[in-house]
Amino acid sequence: MSGEAMLVFDEGLTAYDFGRGHPMSPIRVELTIHLARALGVLDELKVVPPPTADDALLQTVHTADYIAAVKRAGEHPEVPDLEHGLGTDDTYCFSGMHDVSARIVGASVEAARAVWEGEVQHAANISGGLHHAMPDRASGFCVYNDPAVAIQWLLDHGAERVAYVDVDVHHGDGVQAVFYNDPRVLTVSLHESPTTLFPGTGSAGESGGPDAEGTAVNIPLPPGTGDAGWLRAFHAIVPEVVKAFRPQVLVTQHGCDSHVEDPLAHLTKTVDGQRAAYLALHDLAHELADGKWIATGGGGYAIIDVVPRAWSHLLAIVAGNPIDPETPVPEVWREEVRIRFQRVAPMRMTDGQDASYTDWSSGYNPDTWLDRSIKATRDVSFPLLGLDPTY
């Protein structure tokens, strides 16, 4: 990789905290940073602190009334505002909610700015990827939608075509909603079927608004899908649709809650399959967008065994020096986990899987839910992008 790579981070981003026992624990980000540091990954990244997004920047996606509601919720967290999705069972109110949420947005926008202006080729905000937030309400642990604001910033600063690929186990509904009728943005989401998982959207038939048909691509996957099936679906659809769109920049969301150990969903991927997806997206950015790549975090609730390893792999790929899966997990990090959590941490950066898959060109099997899902997406989306849906 030519050009420096960036991580936008400081410890203030771990103040995004819905409280003890909530799945969206800031510990997952903290442990990721500690592991990435122990592995030497941070030495290969330009680490910069995030600016705070001001109201004008937030209002490029969110309504003024909603921003005011978030501020009130942070000042009086004991008072729910259900009209704006604040104080629900998913998205609790907490002190300073607006401040840290605006910093997360600022981090993603700073990553986008640095890439778009040519300071770096790749930039990451692992605290971001809060893809469920809607313009006028919080949803699914997400207060402000940092990927959407970053994409809008790119559009407002000259980008004509932005591709967004979301590999979180949950549908990237908020980002899709913001750009559903904008032909300048391609949103692609691979997620567990909406019939079995929140938010209940993301069917193959959701393909873009009347002015942007074909610019929303959804790949709903059956529960139980593991590395081989997930990668089969990814490679059967994502490279072709992104190539057809011809993006100038690639924005990706890397929720790692597709892992078999994640407590909130039902896919069965491993860290090895997730690493393979990150590598594929890196290569896609270089093939189609001159290497311009902005990567965010997202979901992921196996906060010790999965998230730190998955996102350390992501940061290493962003830095241009992928970690060998057989690399031992540094003992200093394992000791931290033992002392703080009385847990035995993973010993290696792999789950011991080879992440191989059977390519779609091998043939369509109508007897499998997976292949029927892949075919449904190809049948809907490919013609709208000028592609042949047959293999």
Automatic annotation (TrEMBL):
SUPFAM superfamilies: Arginase/deacetylase (SSF52768)
TM helices/strands, residue ranges: none
GO molecular function: histone deacetylase activity
Record bears the keyword Glycoprotein: no
InterPro entries referenced in this protein's UniProt entry, alphabetically: AcuC, HDACs, His_deacetylse_dom, His_deacetylse_dom_sf, Ureohydrolase_dom_sf
Pathway: Ketone degradation; acetoin degradation
Family: Belongs to the histone deacetylase family.
Name of the featured protein: Acetoin utilization protein AcuC
Species of the source: Kribbella capetownensis
